[in-house]
């Protein structure tokens, strides 16, 4: 295991000093991680890579089903709102609902992440459970678009941010050697959630109507996440903090590169999720075709996120992320732009789902290798602020482009917009990789040789 992989187990300054050394034992890693924790709390620390770590990790996976399941399956509501309930409303206006779910979920994480580190994982998660449930129930009584924007969009997004704050930090702190795999398994829950959320939401809308679909989703969210929150254990107790935010992180270039990369990815990523159902309708498909395409997209994502974690453990986090972003552009532009049949859309969703969302597995691991375990929720929250801004700018821009330049008849300009931001994110990852390599001490090899190093 490289020193980068043990960054969450050692103080930041020792990572670069011992970049070529391996940890000699799990116990020594625990000692490094606990050096600033009072003696009476050290006995609480459990070793990294133990079986116990899979308990909170699997709890995170289940909660991800409900956190991201709502955003990953929003395409069902988007297609219903755009083509059935609010036909005369612009795509830009309707895009506010799904946009706010994800942008506030990530953007508010700058505050909820710090609160999770300061006041505890479980308390933060339970606040999220209550807010998300309330959002669903209130949305079920909405008659106007603005009411859905405030409930299904704003309130749910804020609630999801309270849930996601501790969830992002748990898998990386429990694992070192298998950190990528654990993160991949956890975030695969978002895709599994997207699978059954999509199928269940479509079935409920068809048979019970959208109000009862929202109410049932609210009840399920409250019941399941309440149980999973009980299993949110920290491996290392939090150190006392003088300030709520980890402002020292902003002094490092790697923080800004991670933030820029996340912003660019989220600016371009959601286009296919939001508009694949409408694309199917333009090709003569039905509402059910749109729902089935989202099912394929989420199924591919579930597989891809787990594989991404395994590949990243073997070949490096940044290597894997860079390659996946390049492949995403290669897949998205020709297959979506030239699609003339529903069958080609299924191929697009399967490939896009497997390759594009690897950043969701890998970004938390990159943060955990560059920053101390004790402040992971705070630093991830700070980087997610930029991801949330990317969602906000990207989704609203895509809605406007679809209305004004694609005239709601095609997606050529929307596709180009999405793909170019994914390509820009790949360039940022490449620059970040060079920066991290150049920061390593006592390495006199050539740039070409260093670029082949696993990072």
Walk me through what this model shows:
This protein has helices at 12-17, 26-33, 39-42, 54-72, 74-85, 91-107, 109-119, 121-139, 145-174, 179-207, 210-229, 253-269, 271-282, 287-315, 317-337, 342-355, 358-370, 376-404, 412-439, 447-451. The protein is mainly α and 455 residues long. It has a single domain, classed as Up-down Bundle (Growth Hormone, Chain: A). The longest helix has 30 residues, at 145-174. InterPro entries: MFS, MFS_dom, MFS_trans_sf, Proton-linked_MCT. Residues 1-33 are annotated as: Disordered.
Can you summarize this structure?
One of its GO terms (cellular component) is membrane. The protein has 455 residues and is an all-alpha fold.
List the helices and strands and how they pair.
Layout: H1 12-17, H2 26-33, H3 39-42, H4 54-72, H5 74-85, H6 91-107, H7 109-119, H8 121-139, H9 145-174, H10 179-207, H11 210-229, H12 253-269, H13 271-282, H14 287-315, H15 317-337, H16 342-355, H17 358-370, H18 376-404, H19 412-439, H20 447-451
